[in-house]
Each structure stands twice: as C-alpha cells, then as structure tokens.
Design a protein that fits this description.
The protein is α+β, with helices and mostly antiparallel strands. The protein has helices spanning 2-8, 11-29, 94-97, 108-155, 170-201, 204-210, 232-255, and strands spanning 34-38, 53-58, 61-67, 74-80, 229-230. 53% of the residues lie in helices and 10% in strands. Strands 4-3-2-1-5 form a five-stranded antiparallel beta sheet. Helix 4 (108-155) packs parallel to helix 7 (232-255) and helix 5 runs antiparallel to helix 7 (232-255). The chain crosses the membrane at residues 6-28, 127-146, 172-197, 236-256.
Length: 265
C-alpha cells in the first residue's frame, strides 16, 4: 500500500507536465499573439463597439483580410512563414522583400525582436516537450515499480525484507527532466518578453497611437483601426506554459530522487 501511495504521488508532476506541453503547443501554433481590430471607417471613434474584422500576427503567421466584390464581406487568410531563411520569415527588411507594402516588411529592430520571440518559443517548446517525455517515462517506471513491489510483498514470507530500491538510472532521468522543464520555463518567459516588445511596443501603427494628440487617440487621423494588443497566445497560453513547466520541475524534484554526486577530494 505504501508503494501505491508513492506511485500516486508522481501524478502532480505528470499533470503539470501535460498541461505545460499542451499550452506550449497551442501557443507556438497559434496565430493570436497580437491582434488589431478594424472598424467601420464611417464611424467616429466614440462609436467603435464591434469591429468589422480582426487581423492577427504571430512569430510564424500573419493573418490579413481580403474583401470581395461585396465590400461588407471580409475573408481572413493566414500565411505561414519559416523560422529562418532570406525573405522566408514573418519579418524582413525592405532589402529582402523589395516591397514597402508587404505584410512581413519591417525595420531591423522589429524583425530582430520578432525573430527572438519565435526562436525562443521554439526552444521553449522543444525543452518542455523533452521534459514531458521524461516525465512520462518516470511516471510509467514509478507505476510499474510500485506494481512489481506490491506483488513481491504479497508473495514474500513474513520474515523476508522486500527490496524498495528504485532503478539506479531514475535519478539521472529526473535530473535531465528538471533541467529541461526549467530551461523551457525560462525561454518561455523570454519569448513572451520579446513577443510583447516586438508585436506590441515596436509595431509601427502603435507608435502613431502613442504619439497622437490628446491621450492615445487623435480624432483627426483617418484611421479605422485600433492599436495592436496582446492576443490570447501572448497573454495567456505562453504564461500557462512556463508556469506549469516550472511547477512540473518543482514537483518532480519533490517526488523523485536526484543523483547524489560524490565529492572530489
């Protein structure tokens, strides 16, 4: 019974790792890192309640709209970009695109920040995925070992002493598990930071809003679009991913043994 309780104690790190893995996959594949609402140009800003469409931007996706012959119908279409390559990413200088109006044309600062956000999110997803895989292995080993030990206890004589030693390799798996999840959490935080700086602070249209007369709105501007704001991925999914990754690492350290390093004389 004691071993069954010990096996059940491994559920918290496993659950946290599953949640971290799920949220990091949703975040890196989401288009909704940043979004911008567009409104009816005939309306005054004071009447902006419901947008007529919303466009999105992410490290590897740009979603825009195209209107049909019926100007009230807008179709959202998304383009997916690579993480590297000349004129292959979601942000390139005009030297690469040779077009000032391309959706992925930006200045060097903006592109650097977006590339950092994308590359860090790839790194975070990779290490969280590795941590999840190692957590799954540790969980399976814990349950198998608990089941085997319980059977040995049931068949052993009253004077026999059951062997409660777990496999010798599990502390090392746990060490790499915790390291992977910790790296995933840290790089997730950095990806979120660069995402906010790039998609929110450095977007060209956001600068126009911030420098407008009055507070943040200039009623003389002929602009039917609001500012770029954080989307669900940048605001919630990444946050959940690195929080649960950190919780999984902490829970694994509390539940499973770590290697005992011998001191060098």
């Amino acid at each position: 019974m004691a071993k069954i309780s010990s096996a059940l104690s491994c559920l918290p790190p496993f659950v946290f790792a599953v949640l971290a893995f799920a949220f990091t996959i949703v975040a890196i594949t989401s288009r909704d890192w940043a979004q911008q609402n567009h409104y009816d140009p005939s309306l005054d800003m004071k009447d902006w309640k419901t947008p007529i469409y919303t466009i999105y931007r992410a490290p590897f996706k740009i979603c825009e709209v195209s209107n049909s012959a019926n100007s009230t119908t807008y179709t959202l279409h998304c383009n997916t970009f690579k993480s590297h390559g000349f004129d292959k990413t979601s942000c390139e200088t005009v030297f690469a695109t040779q077009n000032y109006s391309n959706a992925n044309t930006g200045d060097a600062r903006l592109c650097e920040q977006i590339h950092f956000a994308g590359n860090l999110s790839i790194t975070s997803t990779t290490f969280i995925s590795l941590g999840f895989l190692l957590t799954l292995i540790m969980t399976v080993v814990s349950f198998v070992y608990a089941s085997t030990t319980s059977k040995d206890e049931a068949t052993s004589t009253p004077t026999a002493t059951p062997d409660y030693h777990s496999p010798s390799y599990t502390p090392y798996i746990n060490f790499f598990l915790i390291t992977s999840l910790a790296i995933g959490a840290v790089t997730g935080i950095l990806a979120q930071f660069y995402g906010i700086v790039g998609f929110i602070q450095s977007q060209p249209s956001n600068g126009a809003w911030a420098s407008a007369r009055g507070n943040v709105i200039d009623p003389t501007q002929d602009n039917a679009a609001g500012p770029w704001v954080e989307g669900k991925a940048l605001r919630a999914w990444i946050t959940c991913a690195w929080i649960f990754s950190a919780l999984a690492a902490g829970a694994a350290g509390a539940v499973w043994r770590l290697p005992v390093w011998e001191k060098v004389a």
